[in-house]
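Hi R.,

As promised, here are both runs. First protein below:
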Amino acid sequence: MTRSYYWLILGLSIPAFLWLLPTLWMVSLSFQPNEVLARTTSSTFFGLVPLPFTAENYSALFAFGQTPWWFLNSLIVSVGMTLGVLAVSTTAGYALARLDFPFKTPLTIICLIGLMVPEQAVFIPLYTMFADFGWHNSYHALILPRMAVPIGVFLMLQFFRAIPKDIEEAARLDGVGWLQIFWYIMLPLARPAMMTLAILTFLYAWNDYLWPLVSAQQREYFTITLGLASIQSNFAQSEGLGRVMASGVIASLPVVILFLIFQRYVVQAMTAGGSKG
């Protein structure tokens, strides 16, 4: 390896470390006693080394009875929303990319226009509609409004358009129907794009705060982000800096693990889209 290669690695490592520094600092502070953090503004290596070490902040959070339940709520909402987005986006994207039916072009334009509408603009109609149905403070109230997302339909539309039509034509010559083509041929080919969409949707659902804040008024339906914010609504009423940092680690750890496990699918989708484009 040439010297320039090592300089490149060094040049990339420095901004990577600076990007990770706040996260490392948050994790370190979460393992330090609140008493130590309260009486000093700096600790070993600017707080990056947790001395003295304690797991009291985490045990105190989980000792609060509803924290595990909020975790379960976030998992149910995130998985349900991810499955719903995949079902709607793949079917709609395939229909708009491959099938011929009346008003196809206007529907595609309407879907693309939806990309320009901020979600906050439809909160009042959504809240009123779900209130009329009596669906607030329920799982389906947290899941259904996010199932039809224009960006998901657009992503799958572009991916299906990039697949050569010769594959479908060969299947039709063998007497295969469009539903079988979609299920047995197109979906396996679209797996990288589906995994990318699933990861992005899960991350969005897990980190979502605004809609659960509007729809869930009962604490048993709080998600983890809303629940942790409710017990630490402001810094003065919280149990200390270490507890605040521990709640941040707990809320972000599942999505970090998810991305590390499935990041290769994101790379595959990007490279596939670039080569087909």
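And here is the second one, sequence first, then its structure tokens:
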Amino acid sequence: MIHALLTRVGGTDWETIRLPLVLGLLALVPPVVFREGATYVSRLIILAAIFATLAMALNIVFGHTDQLFLFVGALTGIGAYTTALSAEAFGVSPWATLLVGAVLTGVIGALVCYVAARLQFTVILIAILTLALQFAVIEFFVGARDITGGSTGLIFSGLGFESLQEGFGIHEHVILYYLVLALLGATFAFYEWLRNSTYGLAFDAIRQDEVAAESIGVDVVRYKVLAGFTSAFIIGLVGPLYAQLEGFVIPGLFEFQVIDVLVLIILIVGGMRTLLGPLVGAGLVIWIDEGLASTGEWRTVIFGALLIVLFLYFRQGVVPFADRILNDRFRTRERIATWRES
């Protein structure tokens, strides 16, 4: 791990300060980058933060309990639609219904994990089940026109702070960025706590060997359901923020190729079961994808080729690869220094 390089930084444990340090640096992005007329750049940065949060949610359920959710897009859509529709139905702000969408997606995630755990589904079967649910939910979004607005969707802008925007002249992207950053920071902090807790130990025991974990008293079904609820709940919170960025809620935003493929790629490229992997992966993949926009019809081909290179060169992810390289160099320098002293 990289933190082994910096076990002490000015007398402070690196593990303790790394997340606040990264979040502090990210908090400085708007004053430096978000300038008048630079809405394209600010949108990309917010999008990267959104996908980093989604990737971290998948990291919990897939990276630590081997339950491959291939309906992240559907869960994101359920969170967004539930928040928007319930706010409209009750005549309240979407802030009041934000948790309703998150809890609903959490329950759905928990239910899927419960069924899969009870029936002892393998990771492949869970992937097939959730992929089928992904397509079914998107079809529902399109078909239930009277409820969801069909393919034309709904206009959504209820998570903004108009008074701040008008009173202080703050761009809406700045406010949205800090909202997304707050959720990202809370998710990453929760993940750091989770993997160092007894829950994290139970998750890893399940991932390595379910039978052995059960033999030592780990309730496999309970912990899998907990992982499913936690991940889906986070995804449900991200959904309305994603819709706020786009300005509307339509089925096309939540399709498999739009969200699930990208989230899975981000997690693998960044590095599974790492704290900073989803963030690094999101920044890298979003940057590459948008950088190829000018290539036209060759965009998908070139993007795929670059991903193959990344997967072959960074087999365990960019963050674990960087950890290994830096640790090797650090140990080499340490040995040289010890040899010279002797």
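A quick note on the second one: The CA atoms of residues 153 and 250 lie 4 Å apart. Let me know what you think.

Best,
J.
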